[in-house]
Each structure stands twice: as structure tokens, then as C-alpha cells.
Design a protein that fits this description.
InterPro entries: Asn/Gln-tRNA_amidoTrfase_suB/E (IPR017959), Asn/Gln-tRNA_Trfase_suB/E_cat (IPR006075), Asn/Gln_amidotransferase (IPR018027), Asn/Gln_tRNA_amidoTrase-B-like (IPR003789), GatB (IPR004413), Gln_synth/guanido_kin_cat_dom (IPR014746). By secondary structure, the chain is of the alpha+beta class. It is built from twelve helices and 18 strands. It has helices at 104-116, 220-237, 276-295, 357-362, 368-379, 383-391, 395-405, 410-427, 439-450, 456-466, 474-480, 489-502, and strands at residues 2-4, 10-12, 55-65, 120-121, 124-125, 128-131, 141-144, 151-161, 169-183, 187-191, 196-200, 207-217, 249-258, 268-273, 303-308, 313-319, 329-330, 337-338. A hairpin with a 5-residue loop joins strand 1 (2-4) and strand 2. Helix 2 (220-237) packs antiparallel against helix 3 (276-295), helix 5 (368-379) packs across helix 6 (383-391) and helix 9 (439-450) runs antiparallel to helix 10 (456-466).
Length: 513
């Protein structure tokens, strides 16, 4: 059983058989515990067993599909779930004589993302060929930016809760090493029944931004929180839709463990994780697996692994390729990518033919961190509530719409949004956009409650009826089910007297003796 220490440090009791050290079994996925990240720094002293603590190290490489109508170097359309091989140009299929033409929109999206992540934008960046051979890569190489990427040296701040109730949040920062433009590969569909592989090149050549995060994280919870914050930023910018279910955001996690004061351990790479929840599980499992392997006398291989979501564990895929295996070389068909700012832009240059970094910077929207601050300041809600509002697509807009239409104070409205509406949505696996209860209907209901027309209990009953989506208004439901609060004392006395008169046998008259 693993114990979590300060600042991402692990300690575990060594279990050895009487026959001496030897490789032990991988941790059981079903018995695996989530790794709780600690907000405090520093190493934990060794326990009674004398074992030094373990420090997990996690770095991420995130591939985000750029939101663009066409591919990075060709005019082929980008569309999810199109018929196989229906969106493939001659260049995408790597026919002889075809040349790449850089997509301006993809460059602007990368610059925008780099600025939002506090990166330095390189005014001159280069394209390279990364060679590897696979059926879904017709050219035998990928065009990327290995030497001089478009953006470098950024940072991403993210927050995570220190308890299950989200009553305390801690903010951490991960360094961004670089952001590079590159083209996606096609998709191989393996048919084990017929022992064949089918290739779909619709995705081949689609523009990607690879965001490389430094190994500044120590557990699955931190990795998941960082990716979720990046996802929100990309969606806010519009540079990527970042829908993980559609493969628009894929994560590779590099994981290693070491003792304090020692060099980083041998790392493994867990490839193509397509869910934030699976990312947290994959990283935590891999940390536990490596610690158990090392403490049982085994060695960690520098390999590529995959996460099996059904079994809840990582499985080997292949040996990790060294950098020289890719045989990087400059892309001969693309000149250096030159960007400008207000100072370097020539006076006689057509502004529509160049990309101005300062022009893009001025048009950046409010990022999620700014939106949260505004929600807290404007409506007086708790900081942790602002995180929930932004983490659910469309929920912040729904909340603000309700607030504008009701007389109830925002602090009360947030309770109905998070405790009642959101629980209904999660119970039925619906998004905010799919909710049968509109912001107008909820505001109408809360107005009845605020004017003391109904009780809080009755309001919950009305909300349950609204959820059925039968087209009734809250007031109609209240009248049909007679849920109004009675304010007339004479009317209340008449009702009570009628109840007494109808239950004469049950009523005991107390007469003074």
C-alpha cells in the first residue's frame, strides 16, 4: 500500500519474498487508489523501514487539433466522421510533385495559443521532417518544428482542490517548453477478425499544435487539472475545439520516479490518452507500477505504453524511439516562417499578407482565470463555485442568464444551479445545452420562490416536473398541484376546521375537568 508524502513524494513498505529480491507483479488496477496531491513542498523523511521516499515526475505532451476549415498544408476540408478517404488531396496522399502550402489560420491559432500561455513567440521558426514509417503516413515523414518552434518558454497556472468538498483550492504552475506546428497522421483501423488493417487518410495533414509541458507535475490529479485548464483556454480562444471524444485533444504522459537528491529515473511514455479521467488514472497507475517494480529489484524500461481503460492499467506497446531514429532534417519545401510585431513590420508591407503578433495579442479574449475572477467579484460567489461554472460547458452563461431574469440574489441562484440543475444533468448524462429546463424557466421558478408564492420544498417539486419537458410553466405546475403558500389566516382556519370536521372519530376533545 502506498503512502503519499509532501510535495509529490511517495513512500512504500518494501515487500520481498524469502528467496531474495526479484521483479514483482504490477499493482492491481481494482485495488489501486487515486494519488492525492499535496500542496506543500519538501521531501518526507524516511520511515522506520529506512527507505528513502519516492518522488514521482510527470511531464505532458498534448496534441491539440487546430480549429480550421482546411488542413495545415493542403486545401482539403477538415470534418469529423466523414466517409473514409473522402477528404484526401494529392498532397495528403503524398503523390509525387505535390508541394505544401502553409495555412494562415493555423499559424494565427498557434500564435494566439502561445500568447495565452505566456510564451515568447519566435519571429522566425523552421519546419523539419520527422521520419518514421507507418501505413497511415504516406510520405514516410511528418512535417513538424523540432529545431525552432513557433513559441517557447511559457507557463500555465492551474488549480486543484485539496479536499473532496472543493472548499480549498491551491494554484500551481507548470512550465511550457514549447508549442510547435505539425501535421497529423492518418488513422489505421485494425480488423483482427480478418487479420487486416484498413487505412483512413481523412485525418492525414490536419493541423496540430503540440504543447510540450515540462516535468513539473507529480500525480494524475495535477496532470488532469493542467490539461483541463489548457482545454478551457483553447476553447475560449477558439484555436481548438479540444473535444477529446473526437480525438481533438490527445495526451502523452511521461512518467518517472526517483529518490530525493538523485537524477530523474528512466521514464516511460503513456501514449494517446483521450480522456482527462483516464489521464489521471493512467499516471497514478504508472507511478505505482514503477515504484513496485524498482522496490522488487526490477528495472524500468524506456518504452512506450498504452492505457487500457477497461483494465485500468498501462500495457507495453514498443521500445521508445531515440531522437536520432527519426532522422530529423530541414523541410526543403518550406521557407522559414517569419512573423512580425508592430516594431518590425515594414511600412510598405500589406498587413493582410503578414501575421502581426501584436494585432493578435490585442484581440485575445478573457481567459478562464480572468472569467473566474469576474464571476467572484461581480456576483459574490465562492471561488470554487466559479471553477465549477467554467468547467461545465455553457454553465457560466446559463448562470448569468438566470441572474439577469430573477430577483433572487446570485449567492442563492448558484445553489440551485450547482446542487439541483447540475445534479439533474449529470444524472441523465446531458449537457447544459441539452437541458429541458431553460434559464428562463428556472428564473421564473426562482421568482415564485423569492416572492414567497411557494416554499423551497414545493420549488424542488416544480423543478422535477419541469425536467419532464412537457412545456408547462412553473406557475401552471404550481396551480395544477396546488402548491401555493396560503397567506390568508381566515382561509387557513377554514381548511383546518374542515379537516377536523371530516375526522370526528380521530379528534379527541380536551374538556377542562
Amino acid at each position: 500500500m502506498a503512502a503519499r508524502g509532501c510535495g509529490g513524494v511517495w513512500r512504500r513498505a518494501r515487500q520481498r519474498s524469502a528467496g531474495g529480491p526479484g521483479p514483482g507483479p504490477a499493482p492491481s488496477p481494482r485495488g489501486q487508489r487515486a494519488v492525492a496531491c499535496n500542496s506543500r513542498g519538501g521531501a518526507v523523511p524516511a520511515g522506520k523501514s529506512g527507505l528513502a521516499p519516492w518522488i514521482p515526475v510527470v511531464g505532458l505532451e498534448i496534441h491539440a487539433q487546430i480549429s480550421s476549415n482546411s488542413k495545415l498544408f493542403s486545401g482539403s476540408q477538415v470534418q469529423f466522421a466523414a466517409p473514409p478517404n473522402s477528404l484526401v488531396s494529392f498532397f495528403d496522399a503524398s503523390l509525387p510533385g505535390t508541394l505544401p502550402v502553409l495555412n494562415r489560420r493555423c499559424v494565427e491559432a498557434a500564435v494566439m495559443t502561445g500568447l495565452a500561455l505566456n510564451c515568447s513567440i519566435n519571429k522566425k521558426s523552421l519546419f523539419d521532417r520527422k521520419h518514421y514509417f507507418y501505413a497511415d503516413l504516406p510520405a514516410g515523414y511528418q512535417i513538424t518544428q523540432q529545431r525552432v518552434p513557433i513559441a517557447v518558454n511559457g507557463s500555465l497556472s492551474y488549480s486543484l482542490c485539496t479536499d473532496n468538498k472543493m472548499s480549498q483550492m491551491v494554484t500551481k504552475t507548470v512550465r511550457i517548453k514549447q508549442i510547435q506546428l505539425e501535421q497529423d497522421s492518418g488513422k489505421s483501423l485494425h480488423d483482427d477478425t480478418r487479420s487486416q488493417t484498413l487505412v483512413d487518410l481523412n485525418r492525414a495533414g490536419v493541423g496540430l499544435m503540440e504543447v510540450v509541458m515540462e516535468p513539473d507535475m507529480c500525480c494524475g490529479e495535477e496532470a488532469a487539472a493542467a490539461v483541463r485548464e489548457l482545454q478551457l483556454i483553447l476553447q475560449t480562444l477558439g484555436s481548438s475545439q479540444a473535444v477529446m471524444a473526437e480525438g481533438q485533444l490527445r495526451v502523452d504522459a511521461n512518467v518517472s520516479v526517483h529518490h530525493p537528491g538523485e537524477p530523474y529515473g528512466v521514464r516511460t511514455e503513456v501514449k494517446n490518452i483521450n480522456s482527462i479521467r483516464f489521464l489521471a488514472k493512467a499516471v497514478d497507475y504508472e507511478i505505482q507500477r514503477q515504484i513496485e517494480e524498482l522496490e522488487n529489484g526490477g528495472k524500468i524500461l524506456n518504452e512506450t505504453r498504452a492505457f487500457d481503460s477497461k483494465l485500468g492499467c498501462t500495457v507495453p506497446m514498443r521500445d521508445k524511439e531515440a531522437k536520432q531514429d527519426y532522422r530529423f532534417m530541414p523541410e526543403p519545401n518550406l521557407p522559414p516562417l517569419i512573423l512580425y510585431d508592430a516594431k518590425s513590420l515594414p511600412a510598405n508591407m500589406n498587413h493582410q499578407q503578414v501575421i502581426n503578433i501584436d494585432w493578435i495579442h490585442k484581440r485575445l479574449p478573457d481567459l478562464p482565470s480572468v472569467k473566474r475572477e469576474k464571476l467572484v467579484e461581480q456576483y459574490g460567489i465562492l471561488p470554487e463555485h466559479s471553477f465549477t461554472l467554467l468547467n461545465e460547458d455553457g454553465l457560466a452563461e446559463f448562470f448569468e442568464s438566470v441572474v439577469k431574469q430573477t430577483q433572487m440574489k446570485p449567492k442563492k441562484v448558484i445553489g440551485w444551479i450547482l446542487n439541483d440543475l447540475l445534479s439533474y444533468l449529470k444524472q441523465h448524462s446531458l449537457t447544459v445545452e441539452e437541458s429541458p429546463v431553460s434559464s428562463f424557466l428556472l428564473a421564473d421558478l426562482l421568482n415564485l420562490l423569492e416572492r414567497n408564492k411557494i416554499s423551497s420544498t414545493a420549488a424542488k417539486l416544480v423543478l422535477a416536473e419541469l425536467w419532464k419537458g412537457e412545456g408547462k410553466t412553473p406557475l401552471e405546475i404550481v396551480k395544477e398541484q396546488k402548491l401555493e403558500l396560503l397567506q390568508d389566516q381566515k382561509e387557513l382556519e377554514q381548511i383546518c376546521q374542515a379537516v377536523i370536521d371530516g375526522q370526528e372519530n380521530e379528534v379527541i376533545m380536551m374538556v377542562p375537568g
